[in-house]
Design brief:
Layout lengths: L4 E5 L6 H13 L7 E5 L5 H8 L4 E3 L18 H6 L4 E4 L2 H6 L4 H13 L3 E6 L3 H5 L3 H13 L10 E5 L13 H19 L1 H6 L2 E4 L4 H8 L6 E4 L6 H8 L3
Parallel strand pairs: 1-2, 1-8, 2-3, 4-5, 5-6, 6-7, 7-8
Helix pairs in contact: 1-2, 1-11, 5-7, 10-11
Bound molecules: 2-phosphoglycolic acid.
Length: about 250
Amino acid sequence: MRRKIVAGNWKMNNDLTETEGLITDIKKQQRTSDAQVMIAPTFTNLWHAYQALRLSDIEVVAQNMHFAESGAYTGEVSAGMLKSVGINGVILGHSERRAYFKETDEMLAEKVNAALENEMFVIFCFGEELDDRKAGRHEQVVESQIKNGLFHLQASQWKHIVLAYEPVWAIGTGETASPEQAQDMHAFIRQVLETKYGNAVAENTSILYGGSVKPANAEEIFSKPDVDGGLIGGAALKAEDFYAIVNAI
Ligand code: PGA
């Protein structure tokens, strides 16, 4: 059975004081769903977040990492460093990393390997641009991002992978994919997994939707059979909104 997950991607928001405040607010929220809750603060706040949440049911994950273990990569952070501050999961391939920091499928495949070698799980993001959707090649784009980033893995490694479909045109724009567009793409992704790896991997891999998920639209999106939760940006920065989304599952 695949897990239901709601993960908050804080992006480059919240200094230490703000992180403490938001975690305090999050801890006060009432939980009525059994979804796995995750938050992804910035690197500098991971250790604090881990300490503050280690006895809770909230998992703290990183937003990115480098593929090398150590060395002359100024400004970068390795999987081993994340592990050493209690972090067991990482978001990889976010469209902002792909667009602004020129992360390629090949780099992402290496990052995935580094994460798995360090016994971390990966939330692997992908999604088409508006032009791709307008031209009707959204499925092709998504399929190639998944293939290039992940299809070198063995079936047995997929238990460490969570997928996050995030159409670029819906991220931070207030424009959400319709529940039907999300469902159609998630069903397509599951089909792609089934063709390559068979039914067990396809059925057991959680596929999250991301892109302007809000308390007002979460329930309808999450009601779709192939949508297993969400990767939440803006709405994860307010504890009440984030938990309204968590509880919409
Ligand atoms: P958004 O971001 O919810 O603010 O659109 C989602 C994401 O980038 O993961």
